[in-house]
Amino acid sequence: xxxxxxxxxxxxxxxxxxxxxxxxxxxxxxxxxxxxxxxxxxxxxxxxxxxxxxxxxxxxxxxxxxxxxxxxxxxxxxxxxxxxxxxxxxxxxxxxxxxxxxxxxxxxxxxxxxxxxxxxxxxxxxxxxxxxxxxxxxxxxxxxxxxxxxxxxxxxxxxxxxxxxxxxxx
Length: 170
Fold this sequence. Notes:
This protein is an all-alpha fold. It is 72% helix and 0% strand. The termini are far apart.
């Protein structure tokens, strides 16, 4: 194994779980999240020597993951797929909070770009500038997509519970 390969393996071991969680929030399905992370890691590995020189591996990995998710959501075959109520073969760490499950279901109903903005802003805790750079759009677009995404989440969740946690401080 070369030094390059060892460094990439070390990165995947350190950040793989976080990438998978982010992918899950972007797509709402653990199996699809694993596929998205694998596709993103393949792209990342191809450019590994260039990325390391820049020193922004995490940001680049997030950008590749988000763009892979958005690109895949545009494919015709993806639109025809439906989520299943069947349990996965492998158990994932359970989240005991019913609110978290409701929020994930609501998040899955957002369009891909709004979901990406909401996840990056409020799950990954990135600034408006960082999200705009990551998605290759204007800061105003990030703000409007975040606003629309949060408004949609509030509408979906309004009948279920009081989600004052979604109130964003301006």
